Amino acid sequence: MRNRFLSIVVLGASLLASGASIAQPPNPLDAIPDKMPFDVPYGAPITLDHAQVAINAAIAEAKKRGWKMNVAVLDSGGNLVAFNRMDNAQLASIDIAIHKGRAAVKYRRETKIFENLLQVNQLHYLMTLDDVIASRGGIPLVVDGKMIGAIGCSGGTGSQDEVVCKAGAAVVK
To answer: Within 10 Å of residue 126's Cβ, how many Cβ atoms?
Structure first.
C-alpha cells in the first residue's frame, strides 16, 4: 500500500513538472501595433439638418423592408442630436439605439467590432469597459476624415439594425 501511494505521488509530481514545460501559445492581446487603431480625429459636431437626413434615409430603408426601428444620431461628443421611433417599434430599443450610437462615437468604430470580439474572439474583458455595446447597429459618421457623430439603430435583429444604419450613414457627406 505504501509503495502504491509513493508511486502515485511520484507520478503526479512528474506530470506537474512535465506540464510546466509545455510552451503556451502567445497571447494575441500582447501584440503591439505600429499605429493606433481606429485613430479617426473628432470633428465638428453633425448639424441637426444632416442628422435628420441620415434618419430619413434609415427610416426609408426600414419602411421599404417592413421593419419597425428606432434611429438615433449623436454628435462627435456623444450627445443626442436627433431621434425617431417608428410606430410600434420596440420600446427597449429606444435606449439601445442611443447606446449604439454613443459607443460608435466614443470608441470610433462600428459596434459590430465589439460583437465580433466578444462572440467570436471570446474577449470577455470588453464587458468591463464603460459604454460598450456588443451588438451591431452603431456606425460612426465620418466626413472629410473626421468623425462628426454616429448613427445607432435598434428594433430588429443585429443584422437588420446594421442594414438600416448603413443606409443612414451612406447619405452623410
So the answer is: 15
Residue 134 identity (one-letter amino acid)? A
Going from N- to C-terminal start, the domains of the chain cover 48-170
Residue 34, SS3?
A: coil
Name the DSSP letter for residue 4: H
Range 48-170: architecture per CATH: 2-Layer Sandwich (3.30)
- Placement of cell 485613430 in the chain: 39
Q: How far apart are CA 169 and CA 150, in angstroms?
A: 8
pTM (2 decimals)? 0.81
Q: What is the pLDDT along the chain (173 residues), one digit of tens a residue?
A: 666 655 565 555 555 555 555 778 887 777 888 888 888 999 999 999 999 999 999 999 999 999 999 999 999 999 999 999 999 999 999 999 999 999 999 999 999 988 887 777 777 777 877 888 889 999 999 999 999 999 999 999 999 999 999 999 999 98
